[in-house]
Write a structure and sequence with these properties.
4-stranded parallel beta sheet; 7-stranded parallel beta sheet; alpha/beta; Aldehyde Dehydrogenase, Chain A, domain 2; Aldehyde Dehydrogenase, Chain A, domain 1; 424 residues
């Protein structure tokens, strides 16, 4: 184990040294590296998919649940999507060096702020090999070195993808140690990584609630906490019901195993009898298990063919990550707001309504990273928000909130230009 820790320390020092060079690399070189990565994802996909199949088959045999298996799986289409996201990052403006709020004081000093990279980002993640590419692309474009530590279940996939990033970056002229990958899956290395304050400037955990809590509790450097999504959609009395059926169906069914999928549907009592049978039929036809509160069950229980059961207390505030959803009937917008306040994880919340005042109240009063009016919560994603990709979705309020892209991976320094001024 000591040998593995020594190797990690060496990787950390190398990444720190590389970060100082990377902070001043031109946008042209960084973009060339990103295009190299995108091209390699396509030209080397056979090897990537072979490595991923080994990870997938081994994890399935070990009893991994369907949600995690879905996150682990790669395909030609998913690799193409990853490549498109990397090219999207390349197309974005480079935030490094951007000058903010430059102004001239009465004493003649010119004072402003200039964006600078954070330094070294540590990523600890489970099951999702696409994170290797997303975080690497964003870190390289924002001038940050990266230390990648994926989970045991995706070690072959992550290794193949990290090698692509390293080769593509070096070919473009990026310092060779700017992207570090930890091959060992020993848990002790995660604990050591969390103590590398002074080497790692920010830790990004991507995975389940247990991983995120462990990292937040033990890290000696700032942590980007988030990713757990208990997402609600509230169908208001003023909703367009056709729109409400389509949005709720998309939010639940389009990809149910991710953090921005719908978990609980809140429905105003005035439209419950007309709306609930419609959404329940759509969901049941798509294989959704529907857990209904007493009022919803009363409306739906005599309709044949529905996949419904009585909800339990454990269903409220639960992130299902599967084709399962809860339905609760509420008496008012006030009750819906109170419910969301109690059970929300601060990720993504939505209201469906044609009542402008109700929509604006929801936007004003719901405390979450992303709040929607008349749209699916499935849009909470860096690429969908025009950020190219994301290193994670922050449910914190400090430093960054929601999908974290390029600008969220920078800090700033004050720059002051004078002509000999001295403080009296």
């Amino acid at each position: 184990m000591q040998e593995a820790i020594d190797k990690l320390n060496a990787k950390g020092k190398a990444a720190r040294d590389a970060s100082r060079q990377l902070a001043h690399i031109s946008t042209q070189v960084k973009n060339r590296a990103l295009h190299n990565i995108a091209d390699s994802l396509m030209s080397r996909q056979e090897g990537i998919l072979a490595a991923n199949k080994m990870d997938y088959d081994e994890s399935k045999s070990a009893g991994m649940n369907e949600a995690m298996l879905d996150r682990l799986a790669l395909s030609p289409d998913r690799l193409e999507g990853m490549a498109q996201d990397v090219r999207g990052v390349a197309a974005l403006s480079d935030p490094v060096g951007e000058v903010l709020d430059m102004r001239k004081l009465t004493n003649g000093l010119q004072v402003g702020r200039r964006r600078v990279p954070l330094g070294v980002i540590g990523a600890i993640y489970e099951s999702r090999p696409n994170v290797t590419i997303d975080i690497s692309a964003l870190c390289l474009k924002s001038g940050n070195a990266i230390i990648l530590r994926g989970g045991r279940e995706a070690v072959r996939s992550n290794g193949a993808l990290a090698k692509i990033v390293q080769d593509a970056a070096i070919e473009a002229g990026i310092p060779k140690d700017a992207v570090q990958f930890i091959e060992s899956t020993e848990r002790e290395l995660v604990n050591h990584m969390l103590q590398m304050n002074g080497i790692i400037d920010l830790i990004v955990p991507r995975g389940g609630q247990g991983l995120i809590r462990m990292v937040a509790d033990n890290a000696t450097m700032p942590v980007l906490a988030g990713g757990v999504g208990v997402c609600h959609t509230y169908v208001d009395r003023g909703a367009d019901l056709d729109k409400a059926v389509a949005i709720a169906h998309n939010a639940k069914v389009q990809r149910p195993t991710v953090c921005n999928a719908l978990d609980t549907l809140l429905v105003h009592r005035d439209i419950a009898e007309s709306y609930l049978p419609r959404i329940a039929k759509e969901w049941s036809n798509s294989g959704v298990q529907i857990h209904c509160d007493e009022k919803a069950l009363k409306v739906l229980q005599d309709i044949p063919g529905l996949n419904i059961s009585a909800a339990t207390e454990e269903d409220w505030g639960k992130e299902f990550l599967s084709l399962t959803a809860a339905i609760r009937v509420v008496d008012s917008l006030d009750e819906a707001l109170a419910y969301v306040e109690r059970y929300s994880s601060g990720h993504s919340e939505a209201i469906i309504t044609e009542d402008y005042s109700a929509g604006m109240r929801f936007l004003d009063e719901v405390d979450a990273a992303c709040v929607y009016v008349n749209a699916s919560t499935r849009f909470t994603d860096g690429a969908q928000f025009g950020l190219g990709a994301e290193v994670g979705i922050s449910t914190q309020k400090f430093h960054a909130r929601g999908p974290m892209g390029l600008r969220e991976l920078t800090s700033y320094k004050w720059i002051i230009m004078g002509e000999g001024q001295m403080r009296p």
